[in-house]
Every structure is written in structure tokens, then in C-alpha cells.
Amino acid sequence: MSNEQQSIKLSLLLTGNELMSGDIVDSNSAMLAEALSPFGCTIYYKATVGDDLALLEQEIARIAGFSDVLVVNGGLGPTVDDLTAQALANVMRVDLLEHPQAMADLEQWCKSKNIAFNAANKKQAILPDGVGLVPNATGSAVGFSAEINGCTVYCTPGVPSELKTMFSEEILPRLPLDSNAKVKRQRYRVFGMGESGIQERVFKSGLKLPKELELGFRASLPMLELKLQANHEQDYALLEHFSEQVEQLFGAHIVTDDNRSIAHVVKDLLLAQSKRVTFAESCTGGLISSMLTELDGASGVFDAGFVTYSNEMKQKMLGVEEATLIAHGAVSQAVVEQMLSGALDRSGADLGVAVSGIAGPQGGTTDKPVGTVWVAWGSKSEIKAHCFYFPVDRKRFQILVAALGFDLLRRELMQVNEEAAYFKERSLKNKN
Amino acid sequence: MSNEQQSIKLSLLLTGNELMSGDIVDSNSAMLAEALSPFGCTIYYKATVGDDLALLEQEIARIAGFSDVLVVNGGLGPTVDDLTAQALANVMRVDLLEHPQAMADLEQWCKSKNIAFNAANKKQAILPDGVGLVPNATGSAVGFSAEINGCTVYCTPGVPSELKTMFSEEILPRLPLDSNAKVKRQRYRVFGMGESGIQERVFKSGLKLPKELELGFRASLPMLELKLQANHEQDYALLEHFSEQVEQLFGAHIVTDDNRSIAHVVKDLLLAQSKRVTFAESCTGGLISSMLTELDGASGVFDAGFVTYSNEMKQKMLGVEEATLIAHGAVSQAVVEQMLSGALDRSGADLGVAVSGIAGPQGGTTDKPVGTVWVAWGSKSEIKAHCFYFPVDRKRFQILVAALGFDLLRRELMQVNEEAAYFKERSLKNKN
Questions:
Q1: End-to-end Cα, chain B, rounded Å
Q2: Does the domain at residues B262-425 carry the CATH identifier 3.20.20.140?
Q3: Relative to the CA of B76, which of A166, B42, B145, B357 has its CA 20 to 30 Å away?
Q4: Are residues B216 and A24, on separate chains, in Cβ contact within 8 Å?
């Protein structure tokens, strides 16, 4: 008797001219694949077509012919180029009819959102005769399903947030997936090391991954996701053993083993320790504050942020001394320390981060090239500062510096003694 | 004699397990589509399969059957799961042979990069008998092409940077593209109207789009992109005529006809008028400031932003009166007006925006449900305020409110008299 179960053949059919013209990058496929992966199910086949009724119709029929499940994505909106319902009706050889339940749901949705219930919106409730509804908790597009020659076809919205909720809450539970999934994964989010740096560290440690386990990487800017995977139940013990070894090898470079952002991890640490935080930002211009405040419950740990872009405002808002600015320049140890000190005083926070750097593309000098940033972090009783160097484009620079601020706080809150690898790898010789 | 030229049918076949497991998002398709679009060519059909020889073989034969050109992407690497050469050989019914030129190039490449020229690498030069080489300027994967039943098949590397160079430098010049591209597009980015609202306005106006023009929409949160397209040169005058009509119909709702963000448009207006701006943010928590400062040259228009999340910091940083907070609550007209006034005083900016709202999911009341936001905007001489209502999730709420702040400034800077549609559609009865 085999331990393995044949996985279902699940295929995808994406539709939309915007997918064929290069106007958007398809992220929905990866999202669905990720939702399926805990069940050891990968996508079997995927096709993408424009807003072309004949082609859409042909592909629904063809792919349904060799798949157990077909997820059609896109083409459910209110406009004339949304053709999925018509294509499915043609394949099923049924009429398009007003679906009373869908129409009632849609009217209710429009009402709740204060949106006009007009002809364009109503089109979304005109569906192939006989389909079942698939509720959409987050949008107006009506999802529906039908059986075609033994294949279950789900028609889903192209908007990623709507698809995500509909797929995980409505479709996934209906799929004949193996609930004793055989694939098991351990994921880690690492900050401050690249793929080659991680591989180098694994190699140098002498850690030999057995062939039963797979090691994978995925960029999840500003972090890197590291994945260890066992494909068979008999390898779970191996997975556990090597996960421990990986945890030891990377130590505090591992930010989390779940899906939280680095700001979220810091928010949780602050909450647990009943501490409050503040930020004084020059080159990140509000990004650090916004990464924290995008999280539900940020008010539990945060009162104020200071975006001091000009030198004058560093003085007025944070009490940085003019003499210090003149002597050392805005991108200097003395200035970030005074910025942090001022922010801690004014906000009454326990901890904080201050950053001042050169995001570019203009503003670099020989001593302080574009990519240079001074960061101060800590509390009134101990303010630390360091100069880092991220010679990347402006946007990436801001994201990395913001994440670095959170990582320094995280290490402080966790009382990590070991120095992060980026102190060595990302330092610019201190020239203030 | 027809003016029309049939565009070539160019299809894509992507291969790789990583595309089916969700480990990577496919950005190659959009990159190819973008390279093709100046020639009026969109991708006709796209399929994606895992590392499955039989499926790959079947799809090459099938898609070549209805395409003029088939670009196969991925599966050219040195490992055993790189199957493209074998699949193509099977379809062509020829053997795999060592290709002398490819082998020589590869040896040279390995030498120049100080990489071992081992069996794994050599595998990349073992190609179907009779194919032509397609040089790879940036990597070791060997590109090649063959004719199958009148379809030209190009096999290309999956690494985005290698594909990009190979496609633009080697493949594009060989394609039978119309160098006098016939497609012409006019794009508009609109803020404050949804897809159905736009269609409704078009419908009510009596504007009848001729069948020669295509109207398309694309979400580009926080804006909506509206596209008018003529597919033939003889329709360019029509396109121009209807573009003007669309511009009249939507007026100042059109933020831009290029790729700029709404913050970028405001930055350019501020620069042109030599004005400086400031932001006082509660519910957006720094997002407004960061949307401006992510732009190169923000320092030309911006000195300071105030992230006042708590009531106490609204008092300390901006001078909001305690009595006002007690009488009206933080989400009120009086408070946002005082926030803005304080921010203008302290920063010395000419213009500003202040926001205070309930991003949720907690914190709503009957009078002020989640999604309520008070916005103040303007200058010291005239501060305006209005209460809006965006009952959407926290992240979307913050993005919409931030963009709304920029849009109100934009209308102020452009001295638009006509009231934006969102004043009617997104207002909550004023209860402060």
C-alpha cells in the first residue's frame, strides 16, 4: 500500500487583455499556487488569453477536458470586455439569465458601500443558467461554478484581494484535496543577508542537506524567505532536525517563521514589553512611520513620528543644533543622535530610530556617496549609531533603510548580543 | 487595397516547476509584451507548464499549430529538469546532438567567468539537430530556434535579465513586425471615480464610441487608468476627436495622461509654482509624506511632515487645543483645521493637508463608522475641510485617503472650480 496519493489536476485559465499587453504582471497564479501548496498540490496547467470570446470558450472546453478543477480568473467585471459568463454559457450551451440571489447580494453590496446600483453593475449578476454562486466577501464581482464533463469550473474575480479571499474561504474548502498533505515546509524570513550570503554560510558551516530535503529562496523585499521542504511523511523528522540546524546557523538573522512583516514583528515585541516607539526620519520621509501605522493596533505602541526633511526642520522639530549641522552635515552621527534624542523627548516614547542619508540620485559626495545613511537607535539611556551603505536605487534604498531601522529595534528588544552580518557587510567607513 | 496589416500571432510557452508552485511570479511575460507593444503586437496566447516532458512536447506542437511565432521560455539550464531541448527534438523528430559552435561559445563564456566547464554546463550545448543559435550576451544558457510547420519557435532562457537582452537584441529584429506600428493609444489616469462610475458618465453623456476605437480600464490604485485605442492609422483622427471628448467629459478628474503618480503630479505643480507643502497625518500615519518623498527631488517642495497619531501629540506637535479634542473628538472638522494650521505655522509651507479618520478595523462608532475621515487642505489664508467616507479595508483606506489629500491639493493648485464627483459620492453626513 502506497503512502502517496495522486494529487488533483487543477488548472488555471487567466483572461484579460491587460495580461497580454504587458500592462500588468500576473501575481494571482503565484497566490493560488501558494494557497494550494500546503496540500501538496501544484498547478497542473495554465493558459492565458485576452478578452477574446471564441478563444476563451475554446480554452474553457479544452482545459476542462483534461483537468479535475479549472479556475477561470478575470473577466467578471461590469464592462463589455468582461466575457467570462458569456464564454461559460456558450460552453455549457445554456442562456445567460439574471440570477436572483446574485442580484439581491449585489444590490445589498452596492447599498452598503454607498455605490450606485446601475446597469453596468447589474451585468455582474447575469450568469449562465444553472451555475452555483461562489460568494465574494470583499467585492462586487460575482463568483460562480459549474460542472463541465466532470471538471468543476470556478469563475473568479481578477482583483487580487477579491480572489484571495474567495479562493481561501470559498473554493479551497470545496476542493477534493488531500487533507493529510505529504509536503511539509519550514519557512524563515531573514533580514540583512542575500541568497549568496546565505548559501556561503551554509557551505562554510559544513551543513550538508540530505537529498530528501529541498532548500529554496524567495525574495520578499526587504527580507529574503528561506524554505526547507520535505516531500514525504517519512522525512518529517529530517526536516525538523535540519530546521533546528538552520535556526542555529542564522540565529537572530531570522526575523520570523511566519508571514509577518518586519514592522509587525517589532510591533508585537513592543506590545509584549509595553513599550512605545517613535521615529525621526529624513531620507525615508515617513516610510518608517507608515510601515508601522499600516498595521492594525499601531496606536498601542506609537504616538508620533517626525518627518524632518530639511535642516531647518531638524532644528525646529527635534532640537538638532545648528552648529552640529554646520560642523558635520545632516548625514552624520552627531545629527542622527540629536534627532533621536529630540524625538524621544518630544514623544515620550521608550525607544526610537532616527535616519539621515542620501537616497539619491542626486546629493552624493566623495566622502558620502549616494547610498550612505547614518542610523541612530535605542532609548534615552543608551543611543547607538552606525553608518551603513546601500548603493541601490532610491526606492530600494528607502525600503532597506526603513527595514534596517526596524531590525535594529528588534535586536534591541530581543537583547541580541551577536552583531548582525550587515554591520560588516553594509558599513561605510565612518566619515563624519 | 487595404490599409490593414494583420499582426503576427505570437504565443508564449513558459516552463518550470517554480512557476506552478508559486515560488516565483512570472514577470517575463509582461516584459516581452512591453517590448512588443510599440509594434502594435500583443501576445496572442500563453500557456505555462511544469517540468513535464510529455506536456511540454504536446504544448510546443499544439501552440506552434496556430501561431506564427512561439517563444518557449525556461528549461534551458544545466540541470536534469531543464527539458526544453529534449521536448523540441521530440516534436521535430530529430536527435539531440552536441552543437559545435554552441559548445565553443559556452567554453569561452565559462573561461571568461572563471566557471568550471563541466558536464552540467556542457549539457546546455546539446541541442536538437538542425536548430539555429540565438546568441545569449549575458548568460550561459544557449538560445536556439527552429521552424515547425511554418511557425518559428524560439527557445529562450528563464532568467529575466538574459531573456531581456536576448529578446530585444536577437529575436525582436528577426520578427516580421510591422515597423509602421498601427496601434495608437491615449491613456488617462483618473482619481475619484470607479470603473462603473466612468461608464455611467459616458453613457449618460450620450457619447457614443465608434467601433473603430477601444475603451479599456485598468486599476492603478489609487487611480483608475482609462485607455482609448485606435488599431488602424485611418482611425487616428477619430482617436484624437474622442480623446478630446473624453477630456471634456471627465475634466479635472483626469490627473494625468502619463505614468506619473498623483503625488508626482502634485510635486510638479508645486515646483512650477515655487510652493512648498506640509502634511499633518493621523490615520495615514506617514503615508502621505512618504508618497512625496519617494520621488526624486522632493526636497524642492517639502521640508517637514507631522505624524500625530495620539491626541496628546496633536496638541504638543501641532497646537491642537485640548478643549477642541474633548468637545469634538479627534475625527472632526475643528481638529483637522487646527492640525493643518499648526503644521503650516511650524513648517512655513504655503500649502498643506491634514487628515484624521478611522482606518479600522476597530474604533468605529455609530456616528463615525470605520472609514470616516475628516480632511483639511489649503493655505493659511483659506483652510477648507470636508468629511469623507471610505468603507474599505485598512490598507486601501489609507491609500485612498492619502491620494485624496494629493488630489485636493492638485485641484487647489490648478484652481479647479468644478467640484469633484467624490464630494457627492464619498461624503458622510457631517457630524462633528
A1: 69
A2: no
A3: B42
A4: no
Question: Which one of 1.10.510.10, 3.50.30.10, 3.30.70.2860, 3.20.20.140 gives the CATH number of domain A184-256?
Answer: 3.30.70.2860
- A18-67 pLDDT, tens digit per residue, is 889 877 889 999 999 989 988 878 899 999 999 999 999 999 999 999 99
pLDDT exceeds 60 at position B5: no
The answer to whether A347 faces chain B, any CB pair under 8 Å, is: yes
Pick from B290, B317, B390 the residue to mutate for testing the A interface (most A CBs within 10 Å): B290
Fold of A10-174: Molybdenum Cofactor Biosythetic Enzyme; Chain A (3.40.980)
Q: How far is A43 from chain B (nearest CA, A)?
A: 5
* Residue A220 in contact with partner chain B when CB distance is under 8 A: no
Domain with CATH 3.40.980.10 in chain B: 10-174
Give pLDDT tens digits for B282-291. 999 999 999 9
End-to-end CA distance of chain A: 71
pTM: 0.79
Per-window interface: A 255-294 vs B, CB < 8 A? 279, 281, 284-290, 292-294
The 10s digit of each residue's pLDDT in B394-423 is: 999 999 999 999 999 999 999 999 999 999
- The answer to whether A115 contacts chain B (CB < 8 Å) is yes
List the single residue in B33, B309, B316 with the smallest CB-CB distance to A293. Answer: B309
Closest Cβ opposite residue A310 in set B23, B36, B304: B304
